[in-house]
Amino acid sequence: MPTFRAPRGTRDLLPDEAARFNRFARVARDLAERYGYRPIETPLFEQAAVFERGLGEVTDVVEKELFRIAPRTEDSEAWALRPEPTAGIVRAYVQHGMHTWPQPVRLSMMGPMFRYDRPQAGRYRQFWQFDVEAIGDPGPAIDAEIVELGLRFYAEVGVRGAEVLVNSIGDPVCRPAYLGVLTSYYRRRAIDLPPTDRDRLERNVLRLLDSKDPAMAAINAAAPRITDHLCDACAAHLAGLRAHLDALGVPYRMAPGLVRGLDYYTRTAFEFYVAGREGQQQAIGGGGRYDGLVELLGGRPTPGIGFGVGLDRVALVLDEQANVAGARADAVDSGDLGTLDVVVVSADPDDTVGRLRVATEIRAAGLHARADLGRRKLGRQLEAASRDGAHFAVILGDELATGHVQIRDLEAGTQRAVATSDLARELARAVKAHRHG
Ligand code: AMP
């Protein structure tokens, strides 16, 4: 057993996995740019009240999972690591007066989130999300834009069969009456409810609908549906969203039990799944509209909508799909594989200065190069270069005196001399021919 290990519920992203996350980041950045969502970064921690007030006190995330940072002194603020991005982004929207910017403000972010939950497969204490938010547009057209953008992300990173489940959870006009109906439904079955759910019944009845307890499955399946209790405005909003999704050719399924885990949602709620993989802990993303959140966090009433994609779960799905297909589903591009074009070696084992200097020049010309910095014989240096998958070796030998080095094609086993002044240009040409040939 090693002396130190990564904390429970966290994991190291080793180079293959970290390269994959880099690729997610590239796809995310590119999509966000194409759709006009501008980057934002907020702190990894906030005043705990941002989450308590924003997400709701009676939510799993706040009650059980908030990763609180112990204050150092009695009077210091209570902080918490961010469990999700929306509350922090909305806090920033209010703080920086973004309501004076052209609306809606379209924002996008990728980074780690923290939830002090019991770790299990697909559920970590530190996990990554790609997130987009559009603040200042009541929808429903933008709701459809956001849902479609989410699905496109999955398609572009190589997930097959991603689909979206959609629901409306009403608004302050119609939800109270529905909650009344729902409460009496559960009260009549109170005796069958697991203790946590019985406890929540009087505090936050909507939570029961997404209870993780298997005992709740049958009770929930027969529960009154909010879509049967929407006010006219909410019903029209849902119809508008569906019309826009249909017009875009976005397939979706209505999911009457989908309520999302946080209090701030109004109207549109959605979750992304891979077809046939729809259990607990299986959502690969989720989001919804939060028309009351800006006001809750101290701004003027402003509508908003967004989603978070769970990148760790996307990675798990890609691994699964690759196993089924017998190949790596997410084709990595050359940068991800750590492509090595050139290794600089030399006849004089001690000439680390010469090797490092030449490698630096080659890298400055834009190629992927490393110098062999061990002090070993030329033969050993060349073996290591081949083993690392380099295409070419640059060999510094006696011809250095006349301003020449050798370029060796490690696969073909051929080599030729070039003037050091031409080296970068010659190599660039050779590498290009090799990459495309
Ligand atoms: P949520 O807002 O809780 O629905 O989170 C959005 C997405 O983030 C989920 O659909 C998951 O894909 C992912 N996610 C949430 N919590 C975790 C976690 N503890 N570990 C890994 N991924 C998570």
Keywords:
BirA Bifunctional Protein, domain 2; eight-stranded mixed beta sheet; 37% helix; binds adenosine monophosphate; alpha+beta; Rossmann fold; five-stranded mixed beta sheet; 437 residues; single chain
Q: Which helices and strands, and how do they pair?
A:
Blueprint: H1 15-35, E1 38-39, E2 45-47, H2 48-55, H3 60-63, E3 68-69, E4 79-81, H4 86-95, E5 105-114, E6 126-135, H5 141-157, E7 162-168, H6 175-188, H7 195-201, H8 206-209, H9 217-221, H10 232-248, E8 252-254, E9 266-274, E10 285-289, H11 293-296, E11 304-310, H12 311-325, E12 342-346, H13 352-364, E13 369-371, H14 378-387, E14 392-396, E15 404-409, E16 414-419, H15 423-436
Parallel strand pairs: 1-5, 7-8, 12-13, 12-14
Antiparallel strand pairs: 2-4, 3-4, 5-6, 6-11, 7-9, 9-10, 10-11, 14-15, 15-16
This protein binds adenosine monophosphate (AMP).
Please explain how this structure is put together.
This protein has 437 residues and is α+β, with helices and mostly antiparallel strands. The protein folds into two domains: 15-174 and 230-324, BirA Bifunctional Protein, domain 2 (2-Layer Sandwich); 339-435, Anticodon-binding domain (Rossmann fold), CATH 3.40.50.800. It is 37% helix and 20% strand. It contains 15 helices and 16 strands. The chain has helices at residues 15-35, 48-55, 60-63, 86-95, 141-157, 175-188, 195-201, 206-209, 217-221, 232-248, 293-296, 311-325, 352-364, 378-387, 423-436; strands at 38-39, 45-47, 68-69, 79-81, 105-114, 126-135, 162-168, 252-254, 266-274, 285-289, 304-310, 342-346, 369-371, 392-396, 404-409, 414-419. The strands form three sheets. Strands 1-5-6-11-10-9-7-8 form an eight-stranded mixed beta sheet, sandwiched between helices. A hairpin with a 4-residue loop joins strand 15 (404-409) and strand 16 (414-419). Helix 1 packs antiparallel against helix 5. The longest helix has 21 residues, at 15-35. It starts with 14 loop residues before the first helix and ends with a helix. Residues 84, 115, 117, 122-124, 127, 129, 261, 283-286, 308, 310, 312-313 line the site of adenosine monophosphate.
